[in-house]
Amino acid sequence: MTINEIFNQIDRLFSANQAHDVEPFLLSQLYKAEAIDDYEKILVICNELGGLYRATGRCDEGIKVYEKAIDCINRLGLLNTENHATTLINYGTTCAVKGESQKGLALFKKAEEILLKSGLGKDYRMAALHNNMSMLCQDMAFYDKALYHLKQGLDILQELKDCQSEIATTYSNMAQIYLLKGNISEAQSACDYAISQFENITGDRDVHYSAAIETRSRIRLAYGDTAGADDDLKKALRLIERDYGKDSPLWNALSKNLQQLEASLTSSDPDACK
25 Cβ partners below 8 Å, 6+ apart? Predict the structure, then answer.
């Protein structure tokens, strides 16, 4: 299969709600590429697998395939190129998700250096880099810096074509940070905008849509709307099960939150024990 055919097959599997088949498909293509030392294809597949492993909480496996991708970059003579920067961003994001903030930050800084030297300061990948640096700042509770990076990335995205989904995701991320800062009204505005954009673009098909719904549940809970929060958590759980599978780390975390919320609803219902 060509690289484009691989991407098309991944899209078909996700569209057919067959996310569980994506990893076996990619691994089979990786084995075939490795058998003939097709380093260009190995690089592409490893980046795709790394994203999948990150989304499903399997960061150690993701790090292994990104190390393999970096090896391909060396073999292909692509050091300090756009491909190198893209892989570093993906790799750094997985390190950040795993909690290895310093390693992730070092990878991001190297990617930023490459992009700036390549004249790509307004490139899509720079926007992605700001988003990822925001995530690290959020993890370290530097919320103002996290918002700064999101807004820098948003400025870039708004100048690019076909980035509506990424813009919606940025607003969703901003809503999470406003919520952490205790700015509930700003969180609600950003979250409502993100959800409306996701729904206008693809309905509920975007894999980032569930995060916006989960954030809305926390906003509703902050306003005392426990019933609305319960509905949103159930919806987010269904979406995550569809996109990443039942018993994925994210599904388990939200399932626990839902159980706790419903337990509190039951205990506060005067008719619950009648």
Answer: 9, 10, 13
Q: How far is CA 60 from the centre of its chain?
A: 17
> Cβ contacts of residue 59 below 8 Å, gap of 6+?
53, 94, 95, 97, 98
**Where would I find the H helices in 36-142?**
39-55, 59-75, 82-98, 101-117, 124-139
Structure tokens at 232: 């949103």
Report residue 133 as tokens.
């640096």
pTM (predicted TM-score): 0.71
pLDDT-based confidence at residue 10 (cuts at 50, 70, 90): confident
Read off the pLDDT of residues 202-218 as tens digits, 9 standing for 90 and up: 899 898 999 999 999 99
Task: Please choose, from the candidates 167, 233, 152, 241, the residue with its C-alpha nearest in 3D space to the C-alpha of residue 198.
Answer: 167
How far apart are the two ends of the chain, measured CA to CA in Å? 63
Neighbours of 112 (CB within 10 A): 20
pLDDT at 196 exceeding the cut of 90: yes
- Give Cα separations from 114 to 47, 70, 76, 87, 193 (angstroms): 18, 15, 17, 12, 33
Nearest Cα to Cα of residue 199 among 239, 159, 147: 239
Band the pLDDT of 18: cuts 50, 70, 90: confident
- Give the C-alpha separation, 27 to 191, whole Å: 36
The number of beta carbons lying within 10 Å of the beta carbon of residue 11 is 11
Mean pLDDT rounded to a whole number for the chain:
90
d(CA 238, CA 217): 14
Sign of the torsion angle spanned by Cα atoms 99, 102, 103, 105: positive
273/62 Cα distance (integer angstroms): 48
3-state secondary structure of 109: helix
